[in-house]
Amino acid sequence: MLTTLSKDTMAIMREQDVVPLRNRVKEVAVKIGMGLVNQTKLITAASELVRNMLRYGNGGDVLIEVVSKGREVGVRLTFSDRGPGIPDINLAMQDGYSTGRSLGLGLPGTKRLMNEFSIQSTVGQGTVVSIVKWKNG
Amino acid sequence: MIHKIAQLLKTNKARLLDGWFQKQLASETLRDDLMTNDELRAQSEELVNALTKTIHEENISQPDSSDFDEVFEILADITAQRARQGFSPRETGLFIFSLKETILDLLADLGADDEVMLFQESRKVSHLLDNFAIITFETFIKSREEVILRQTEEISDISTPVIQVWDGILALPIIGTLDSARTQVVMENLLQKIVDTGSSIAILDISGVPAVDSLVAQHLIKTVSATRLMGADCIISGIRPEIAQTIVHLGIDLTNIVTKASLASALRYAFGLQRLTVKRVETDKKAF
Fold first, then answer.
1. Facing A44 at nearest CB: one of B218, B241, B246
2. Beta A126-134 vs A72-81: how paired, if at all?
3. B5-153 CATH, one of 2.40.70, 3.40.1000, 2.40.30, 1.10.490
4. A4 contact partners, CB below 8 Å, separation of at least 6
5. What is the tens place of the pLDDT at every residue in B67-79?
6. Keyword Hydrolase: yes or no (chain B) (predicted)?
7. Using one digit for the tens of pLDDT, what is the confidence trace for A23-52?
8. Which residues of chain B are within 8 Å of residue A113 when distances are taken between CB atoms?
9. In 3-state terms, what secondary structure has residue B285?
10. N or C, which end of chain A is more exposed by having fewer CB within 10 Å?
């Protein structure tokens, strides 16, 4: 059972919004006492997803939450956009697959960096990616 | 009667200017530290002159009319100058709002006998002067944005210095986020410097990069490839432990690139490539 302890939303419209988001995520991670390695993983994952959102989804919203499950505390980030959506999620989750001439590591890499990862996408309506990193995960 | 408000403003120009100027002098927001009273007087006079020259009974109710272009221009100049001089938005806004107040005072003085007319004319004046105020705001913000834009460019220029650390060895400390625009600047500076100095080794130090995601990695790989095409070796240094772990999990392949944990070890490696050794010289103590 996941309990939300605090939440905060940030709108992402331009590339200039990436750095403030990263700083905000870092602030939250530091506040719950997350170690440097996990902090870096979380910030990198946030950076990947927010770039995806800007590049393919024309921006969107990021929900930053501090969550707890049992004795674990962590940070959950939910990225939602109203972009074109992803037609084949399995393909998008493959290493090296990209429609945008990038390395194609954003989604699969993020999944490896995080403890929990879920993605829902409807073509024509948008994509929602939710990730959780536990403090000691 | 005041139904000819434009005429009224023209004939009472001196009184209007004087009233406005006195109002500005009496205001708490007067900044005689930033601008002398003579300058303020000159600015006020210029604006009142232009306004009374262009205004007539028809265009007073069309605040966007091109008749006012001259007024707009003067307003924009004054505002841009104030933004540069460090006036606050409030002080700049009050400049035009105090003119409105003065005109309304003048109207009330001269036409207090006909309240309906007074109300209608006041509305027109209000509408016109509010539009002037909006132009002031727009120009003010635009001037500030220009300042910010210039600073952004300056930051990206000064934050990508290419340093020649040794004959044939260049170092490029990257600080902050590496986005596409920044990579372009970094790459251009580096490649140009390689040509200028005839260097054969470039060290990219990423100690100051907070997070290396796949886009940053891609940019780094591109920079390394371009350097290689120029015939120089490229070393990436400053990979912190947490960054190394993140890169591995992300699945970024940097195996084709020489990477080092610190700038010092990169420099040592570069010396090795150049067949240079650094030795501690056994000196005679008396020499120091």
1. B246
2. antiparallel
3. 1.10.490
4. A65, A66, A67, A76
5. 888 888 888 888 8
6. no
7. 999 999 999 999 999 999 999 999 999 988
8. 246, 249-250
9. helix
10. N
